[in-house]
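Action item from last meeting closed. Structure (293 res):
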């Protein structure tokens, strides 16, 4: 019996990225850590008339007992534009099952990249199936993107490896909706400083896109410190899900550093939200999603 895929017709992540590929633009997948971030990101999406994916690290689940995720999903459900909720770099099998079973995620990144390839594939396929049974889309990482994310450090120190065409097919076969290839992109606060800026293998990306041949969407990780021109080139080469952390939050962080001791708590929060709105809208325009919702 063929697997039931009816849920994909209403899954927000699937539909947002499908429209982005057809329209040849990128959709921001912004990391949120608190309520101000959630408010700013959704308000930016509404003002820019842009689709949006808000994503959380597993830290947000354990830190807030799932409250941040439920709050984001509630706000997303009332937004005037499509907003999906995504769990990024979920590396623990129990956490993935908990998230798919009990929390309102539209999609989950099943990140088994800290295992060797065969074990990675086996675990990924099993967990993707678990997500699909609950109407949750899935993302995976063929190859290994170097570096560590904030709150996701299991892969830090492991050697990165570029995605091969064989890995593309192997991971597409796990049933995922999104692939996050390793093409020289790196995780981390400022990962490219020691090498003089990002050095992406666009020839490899072109081959990956051709190998995928429309079967899944492509996600770009490791965008901290990217310049607009580089981001636009990635989108032109077929990337639709643009993971961003600092790009939407640098203004907010700078605001806190300068004003934390000078403003009341409410002023600090309100003005912080506006900084998130400004940065997020700017990158929505750069990525071409503004006006597409």
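Sequence:
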């Amino acid at each position: 019996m063929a697997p039931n895929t009816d849920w994909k017709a209403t899954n927000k992540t699937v539909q947002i990225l499908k429209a982005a590929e057809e329209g040849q633009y990128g959709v921001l997948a912004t990391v949120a850590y608190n309520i101000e971030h959630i408010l700013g990101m959704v308000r930016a999406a509404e003002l820019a008339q842009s689709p949006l994916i808000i994503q959380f690290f597993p830290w947000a689940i354990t830190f807030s007992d799932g409250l941040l995720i439920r709050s984001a999903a509630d706000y997303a459900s009332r937004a005037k534009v499509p907003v999906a909720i995504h769990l990024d770099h979920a590396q623990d099998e129990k956490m993935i099952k908990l998230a798919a079973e009990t929390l309102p995620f539209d999609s989950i990144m099943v990140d088994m990249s800290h295992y060797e390839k065969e074990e990675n594939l086996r675990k990924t396929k099993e967990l993707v199936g678990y997500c699909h049974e609950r109407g949750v889309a899935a993302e995976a990482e063929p190859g290994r993107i170097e570096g560590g994310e904030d709150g996701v450090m299991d892969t830090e120190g492991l050697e990165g490896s570029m995605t091969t065409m064989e890995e593309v097919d192997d991971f597409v076969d796990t049933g995922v909706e999104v692939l996050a290839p390793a093409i020289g992109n790196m995780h981390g606060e400022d990962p490219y400083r020691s090498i003089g800026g990002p050095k992406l293998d666009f020839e490899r990306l072109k081959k990956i896109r051709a190998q995928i041949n429309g079967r899944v969407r492509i996600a770009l990780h490791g965008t901290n410190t990217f310049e607009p021109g580089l981001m636009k080139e990635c989108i032109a080469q077929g990337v639709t899900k643009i993971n961003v952390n600092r790009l939407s939050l640098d203004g907010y962080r700078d605001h806190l550093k300068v004003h934390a001791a000078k403003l009341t708590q409410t002023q600090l929060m309100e003005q912080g939200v506006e900084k998130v709105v400004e940065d997020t809208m700017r990158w929505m325009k750069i990525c071409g999603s503004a006006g597409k919702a």
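Note appended to the action item: Strands lie at 27-31, 52-56, 83-90, 107-110, 137-140, 178-179, 217-220, 241-244.
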